[in-house]
Design a protein that fits this description.
Largest sheet: 6 strands, mixed
Structural class: alpha/beta
Number of helices: 9
Radius of gyration: 18 Å
Shape: globular
Strand order of the largest sheet: 6-5-3-4-7-8
Helix content: 40-55%
Distance between the termini: 33 Å
């Protein structure tokens, strides 16, 4: 592991260990290096870069607007989006406004997701496109406010399993449980050169696995965002787009299931 990353890992882990070990502490540590590049994404014919500081400001504005609209319900609000900058903004805005995110699996049948929404007594669904779920839709692009808001953090999230049985199954995680995952990364990074490998000074993680799945949420997003690394978002999930995006953005890391590698192999050949 390079010395710079080792210092960040050691420093962030010490800060987390001495904190309340909740989502508010994770958020504050994660976004403290405001000049670091949070992500790269293609917008038309241009590549758009977002810093951690820019995303943090977006979260603050969105959480202020959400708090003014629905208050701190301390109940669940559905987040229905594929991986994108807005997903990150909505996720933290929900927590910061005193609400709990339920991460909707966009690949589940509507009836299954609607059943979970009902079970969790969810009234609001935040997304980029009009939802078919039962509830009041809130467009993430309209969630912005310059009104001062210090934050009123919640400390719990929920997400579904893969639901291969098509039965409702929801897992709940607190900041304490996410802290345990993050502190485990110190040993993982020290034992694996590949996990911490940089190319021309950057470590770029392809945001391929959905953040609404536990593997994508922890291994792809939380593990790497906690140490201020960069994400590359896809405009779609076709094999051609994946290969071109990896080449154009010089992606260094891709976490995925075996099916992806078989697909990419066919495309390359």
């Amino acid at each position: 592991m390079n010395r710079y990353l080792r210092r960040i890992v050691d420093s962030n882990c010490r800060m987390l260990e001495s904190s309340a070990e909740d989502f508010e502490a994770i958020y504050n540590i994660m976004f403290r290096f405001e000049d670091n590049i949070f992500c790269e994404t293609d917008e038309g014919f241009e590549t758009r870069l977002y810093t951690y500081g820019e995303v943090k400001k977006m979260i603050e504005k969105a959480s202020s607007a959400l708090h003014r609209r629905i208050g701190a319900s301390h109940g669940y609000v559905a987040l229905e989006m594929e991986n994108c900058v807005e997903w990150i903004v909505a996720f933290w805005a929900m927590l910061r406004s005193g609400n709990k995110p339920y991460l909707v699996n966009c690949r589940h049948p509507l009836s299954l997701s609607d059943g979970i929404v009902s079970t969790l007594r969810i009234k609001y669904i935040i997304g980029k496109e009009k939802t078919r779920l039962s509830g009041e839709f809130i467009d993430i692009s309209l969630l912005t406010s310059d009104e001062p808001f210090d934050g009123e953090f919640e400390n719990e999230i929920a997400l579904s399993t893969s639901a291969t049985t098509l039965r409702e199954a929801v897992c709940f995680y607190t900041g304490k449980e996410m802290t345990r995952q993050l502190l485990n990364t110190k040993g993982i990074l020290e034992s694996s050169d590949q996990i911490s490998k940089h190319y021309k000074g950057s470590l770029k993680q392809l945001a391929f696995l959905p953040f609404y799945h536990i593997f994508g949420l922890v291994a792809v997003y939380f593990w790497f965002a906690f140490f201020g690394r960069t994400f590359v978002f896809l405009k779609d999930y076709s094999a051609d787009t994946i290969v071109k995006t990896c080449r154009a953005h010089k992606v260094t890391h891709v976490f995925a299931v075996p099916m992806l590698w078989h697909t990419i192999e066919k495309q390359v050949m």
